[in-house]
Write a structure and sequence with these properties.
There is one protein chain. The protein folds into three domains: 86 residues; 82 residues; 176 residues, Intergrase catalytic core (hpI Integrase, Chain A), CATH 1.10.443.10. The protein is 53% helix and 3% strand. It contains 16 helices and three strands. Strands 1-2-3 form a three-stranded antiparallel beta sheet. Strand 1 and strand 2 form a beta hairpin. The longest helix is centred in the first third of the chain and has 20 residues.
Length: 409
């Protein structure tokens, strides 16, 4: 393994390189979360730079986790692929882009292949090119089975037949991709003069996004988890403050990790952040219980550091916890200590708050305003869909709390 920069510095360089390569913020954050596990393995062994032995142990661990059934195939593949890309970056300082031939098992004739290549060249982002290629290859392969070796004679009827053909085989989310990229494909074909229409009306139907409704924590389990945390220790003070931000204010893990000392307005009793996921500003009340937890950690548990971030590592160097995956691990440890089902889904706390507010009779529009700073109401649907006991104590008064540059909620 190439020696030199520390692994945390490499992660920062890697994130910057991803941004320069066209990866959006959510994608970069997800990759850093996965790499965070590798970084933590090094840090637990007191190693700041990449080490061949620890890297090999990391891959053995995730392999064993997958083959023992402890990790889903998709998560395992993403974790391994991201780690391999990061390690290649550490060696070459280059970002290896996704395999552009992914998902193209069907063989198509030369004429169709040339069209696909020209169409893919118009797709700006490297991540979406895979999906565009997958859809267009599948479509042209099907056309050939129907006797269309070029676009002559292939029109609206063939598009309808293809959609009916794949509707029985693909999931709802896959059908969204089929509709989207078929529409983009025909936009390209029409503009290139290869078809007589872009079939916009035919391909403008809506496919609903398939949302998995995951269970929220009950009031009793939240109380049990919070009561179990040992607030006499530094780790406990940090964990309690983190959990309070999740259970009372419903902050995302990434926003808790990125919380800065300057975001806390002690005088006016507010926490003001720029949300990492949506880039929307959000102002929430610094309730007494959350404020007490934060003060206890900052004054009595937080290491002496010049870091601008609230939550720091427990061991030197006392850097900020810049990846949301660390919040998931803190949540996992709290669940384990309380005897609850072990989970790293910190988002469970946000889901519990959102569900409790809806069940307590708060308008879904107000819930969306509180949790997201005015994000589309669709974001509240997972909370509406869960029927649990009302957690009315979590239904906090948010009247008069204003966003940065916005109107009062």
């Amino acid at each position: 393994m190439k020696q030199g920069k520390g692994i945390r510095e490499l992660m920062r360089d890697y994130e910057s390189a991803l941004g320069e390569s066209g990866f959006g913020y959510p994608s970069r954050l997800q990759q850093l979360q996965r790499i965070g596990r590798l970084a933590q393995m090094h840090e637990r062994r007191g190693m700041e730079s990449l080490n061949d032995g620890v890297v090999a142990e990391f891959f053995r661990d995730i392999d064993e986790e997958f083959y023992s059934g402890g990790c889903k195939k998709n998560n395992y593949q993403l974790l391994r692929r991201t780690a391999e890309r990061f390690l290649l970056f550490a060696e070459t300082s280059e970002i290896k882009m996704p395999n552009m031939l992914k998902g193209c098992r069907e063989k198509i004739n030369t004429e169709h292949d040339k069209i696909v290549e020209a169409f893919i060249a118009t797709v700006p982002h490297p991540n979406t090119r895979n999906d565009a290629r997958w859809v267009s290859n599948k479509y042209f392969a099907w056309l050939e089975t129907q006797g269309f070796n070029d676009l002559t004679g292939a029109g609206a009827q063939q598009i309808r037949n293809y959609l009916l053909y794949v509707a029985d085989m693909y999931s709802q989310n896959s059908m969204r991709d089929v509709r989207l990229y078929l529409s983009k494909l025909y936009e390209y074909l029409y503009e290139a003069g290869l078809t007589e229409s872009d079939y916009h009306q035919l391909l403008s139907f809506k496919v609903n996004h398939e949302i998995k409704i995951l269970p929220a924590l009950s009031k009793a389990n939240i109380a049990k988890m919070l009561e179990t945390i040992d607030r006499r220790t530094v780790a406990g003070k940090r964990a309690y403050a983190v959990m309070m931000l999740g259970t009372v204010l419903g902050l995302r893990a990434c926003d808790v990790a990125a919380l800065q000392l300057a975001d806390i307005d002690w005088v006016n009793g507010e926490i003001r952040i720029l949300q990492s996921k949506t880039a929307k500003s959000l102002a929430l009340p610094l309730t007494e219980d959350v404020g007490t937890a934060l003060k206890d950690y900052i004054l009595n548990g937080r290491p002496q550091s010049n870091s601008k971030y609230v939550f720091l590592r427990l061991i030197a160097p006392f850097d900020g916890l810049l990846t949301a995956v660390t919040m998931g691990e803190i949540y996992r440890d709290c669940c384990k200590a309380a005897g609850l089902p072990i989970s790293k889904r910190f988002h469970n706390l946000r889901r519990s708050l959102g569900t409790s507010m809806v069940n307590a009779g708060i308008s879904v529009y107000d819930v969306a305003q509180v949790l997201t700073g005015g994000e589309n109401i669709e974001s509240t649907r997972p909370y509406i869909a869960i029927d649990i006991e009302h957690l009315k104590l979590c239904a906090l008064p948010f009247e008069g709390i204003a966003q940065k540059g916005g109107d009062a909620v």
